[in-house]
């Protein structure tokens, strides 16, 4: 079972790399590009929407949201774009994954805003 989980995770990682190259292609239609950008930014972000230290919920976003987003974005991509992106992804998989620090900073700001909102809610009572 552990081997199957590792294989699934490797395939998912490769698909995210495919999306990374596919959304950068000029032949990609803008709706597919928009979804792919969101999925790739979230997958490569150093920060999760739901932090992993929260029991059960922390890993649900990685196990459910990312695969669903990948599946949706891949279905919207033209075949020629996917073929080229798969070749580029194979080469990139030999290195590390790109990081999206902008999206990471955005999630930090969202968590700070939520914390400030909760504090303000209790202070104003």
Automatic annotation (TrEMBL):
Recorded hits in Pfam families, A to Z, give: DUF1232
Query: Chief subcellular site?
Result: membrane
Keywords of this protein's UniProt record, alphabetized?
Answer: Membrane, Transmembrane, Transmembrane helix
Identify its membrane topology class: Multi-pass membrane protein
InterPro entries attached to this UniProt entry: DUF1232
Q: Which residues form the DUF1232 domain?
A: 32-68
Q: Which residues cross the membrane?
A: 30-47, 101-123
Location of the protein in the cell? Endomembrane system
Q: Does the keyword Transcription regulation apply?
A: no
Output this protein's name. Answer: YkvA family protein
Its taxonomic path starts at: Bacteria, Bacillati, Bacillota, Bacilli, Bacillales
């Amino acid at each position: 079972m552990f081997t199957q989980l590792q294989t699934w995770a490797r395939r998912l990682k490769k698909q995210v790399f495919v999306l990374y190259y596919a959304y950068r292609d000029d032949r990609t239609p803008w709706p597919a590009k928009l979804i792919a950008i969101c999925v790739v930014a979230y997958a490569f972000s150093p920060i999760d929407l739901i932090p992993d230290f929260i029991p059960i919920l922390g890993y649900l976003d990685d196990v459910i949201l990312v695969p669903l987003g990948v599946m949706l974005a891949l279905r919207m991509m033209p075949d020629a774009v996917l073929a080229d992106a798969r070749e580029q992804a194979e080469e990139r998989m030999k290195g590390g994954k790109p990081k999206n620090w902008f999206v990471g900073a955005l999630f930090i700001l969202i968590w700070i805003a939520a914390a400030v909102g909760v504090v303000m809610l209790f202070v104003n009572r």
